[in-house]
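We emphasize that the prediction below concerns an isolated chain of 452 residues; any contacts that depend on oligomerization or on bound cofactors are therefore not represented. The input was used exactly as deposited, without trimming of termini.
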Amino acid sequence: MGIQQFRLPDVGEGLVEAEIVSWKVKPGDTVKLNDTIVEIETAKSLVELPVPFAGVVKELLVPEGETVDVGTPIISVETESPAEALADDLVPTVPEPAEETGGRTAVLVGYGPKTTEAKRRARKSAGPAPVAAPAPTPAPAPVPEPVVAKSNEQAGSVHVLAKPPVRKLAKDLGIDLAAVTASGPGGIITRADVEGYVAAPAEAAYEAEPVYEAAPVVSGQGDTRVPVKGVQKVMAQAMVASAFTAPHVTEWITVDVSATMELVERLKADKAFRDLRVSPLLIVAKAVTLAARRTPIINAAWDEQAQEIVYKGAVNLGIAAATPRGLIVPNIKGADSLSLPELCTALNDLVATAREGKTQPADQAGGSFTITNVGVFGVDAGTPIINPGEAAILAFGAIRKQPWVVDDEIVPRWITTLALSFDHRLIDGEKGSIFLSDVASILEDPARALMF
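Result of the prediction step, given as a token string:
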């Protein structure tokens, strides 16, 4: 028997601190290897942490709402195995991810069953603890017995029942089966269950989201102060740095996208998009990747230190997403190499993950171009600030039916406005205009995509 302290680890991207958002365990609870014990908020996202050893929770060392540095002990666990009860406190190493199973195991991205030997850490009086493994012998993650998932309350903690085709569908859509309510006999999740689950959140993702506030403001009361931290703090710092570093230029264009709207309706009926949510944003995303071929400087970056322009090898397409904890910009890696159905799948997955607050830091790193879909809020356009490390950002406005002149006649058409902000250090007016015009031309007549 022995007491182990689990220290806040660096989950990636050079994390230095994180806020304890919610504990998933309490003193006296029994935990197994890789059980999720706490949800933390880093500078970029919410992350669930698994415990690197098994035993009984003795004490929660940090209360919810408190921000602590990496290396700070956050929980103590009484371990049963002498092999686990090392004299020194441990911070988990980052092994290879666990093999995928039909169900869901509570494993943080980059974490998995321990496959390396445990190492003792020399005690230090100050500073974060170096990395060490939790056990001296291979310790595969325990596989729970199959349990029927009957409600969302079981999400993340059970092994669900579903046939292989349904599991594949859920995987392709980026859906956690443990979050889906089963309606089949014996608690089996059916294809209809998955389709019904993905339809509701995906549909809502493209509609205006509510404004999130720390607390309601009551008239007549004094001022309310809310600490700036986490995602919001990083966003604020990044936007200020970008606005006062890159000389922004913004160009606008109003486009008849009636043909795009017709294409969206046809794609919805196409079997290749049967299990996907198709929206005009998909066509805009594809148009951006195609237009970038003719104007590659759009997908470049300015390296101030080296005094170089860096042309990116792939279009890592960022989609600005408003979440309850602030604005984040996850990106689709290699979006320019994806087919339209693949790009649609990636967009669906990105939106669903962002809405759940589960976007990982790695998914937000390495972006090369961003789209901000202000149209979901009913906004026509704006002058967006460039995401740091990129050269341009496109604002996609609301699509409205408006009077439009076609062959000297005024007819109702679907109209939208695009606004492109770009870094004038590397993109001049000609190149910015060509790119914006190319995107608009594809939206006006999607057949023009064959020319790129």
